[in-house]
Amino acid sequence: MAEWHSDQAAGLRRLVSKAAPRSICFNGGRGGTGASSTILNLAVAMSLSGKRVLILDEHRRSGNIASRLGLAAPMDLEQVLLDRLPLESLLYTGPSGIELMQVSASTAQLARLSAFEEDRLAFEFSQLTSSTDVILIDALAAEGNRVPSFNLASAVSVIVVSNRAESLTDAYAMMKLLNREYGQRQFRVLVNRVDSLAEAKAVFERLTEVSQRFIDVEPKLIGYVPEDDKLAQASRLGQPVVTAFPAADASQAFEQLARSIEKWPPPDDERYATVGFLHRLIQSSRALAEGLNH
């Protein structure tokens, strides 16, 4: 039986060898950074431009994107793993054709998966995302002993920051953790909820000055989203601002960022092109769990 599982796992691994969609992990923090709102509106803007977008939401039901939209997510990854359900059980459709999955599950739970279970899930994920262009991850903040496995599995890490002290503190702490513990150096920074490009540049310069003084990182400003009353109004309506108020300043910023992301070069590391996202996530979780036990 073990030999049969090994042969089947090897076969699944070969089937999953296709290039994976681009994966971008967004990290917010305290200070009302608006990371979840950013991901939702960016996903809708990309979808309206013809891209197929999947959001992976690591937040629990009370604070996830589905609840903002008034949608009921079918279940989360933790339940799928416990009940050994197909990964398709997680998939549901949001506004403008975007797709979403609730992927809250502990690192330990992912690390305990067998090689066969890993390959089965990776194969199913590959099938579900066969026509997906980009995966956007709404990651939990790295607090306490929680390790950022979704960041380690993603090709790109984006730090969302606002012009508040606690937001800057959390942004620096996240970069420090990923740099010192896991060797990440390149971070893209999106400044949110500011009044002007000048203010956005000032926030970015403050973050860069502090981070480069103490850690070896390369932050890069990718844009900013202005403070806009239409964002709050759209949120109260349970809608993305880019569809509720397409002429709003914030909507224009999200559309511009969506166009910019399309021009980003592919990651240098071939692993992101040849190893599927679910494989990277589970393998990272396994490595992190082993590190915590030593």
Order of helices and strands: HEHEHHEEHHEHEHEHEHHHHH
Terminal Cα separation, in Å?
A: 32 Å
Helix content: 40-55%
Tell me, briefly, the overall form. globular
Poorly predicted sequence stretches spanning 5 or more consecutive residues: 13-18
Mean pLDDT: 88
Global structural class: alpha/beta
Rg: 19 Å
Biggest β-sheet strands, sense, barrel: 8 strands, mixed
Q: How many helices?
A: 14
| Strands ordered across the widest β-sheet | 3-4-2-5-1-6-7-8
Number of E-type strands: 8
Strand coverage percent: 15-25%
Structure explained in plain terms:
Mean pLDDT is 88; it is low at 13-18. This protein is 50% helix and 16% strand. The protein is globular. It has helices spanning 2-15, 35-48, 65-69, 77-83, 107-111, 115-128, 149-153, 165-182, 197-214, 229-236, 241-244, 249-262, 271-274, 277-292, and strands at residues 22-27, 53-57, 92-93, 99-102, 134-139, 156-161, 186-194, 218-226. With 294 residues, the protein is α/β, with parallel strands linked by helices. It starts with a helix and ends with a helix. It has an eight-stranded mixed β-sheet with strand order 3-4-2-5-1-6-7-8, sandwiched between helices. It contains 14 helices and eight strands.
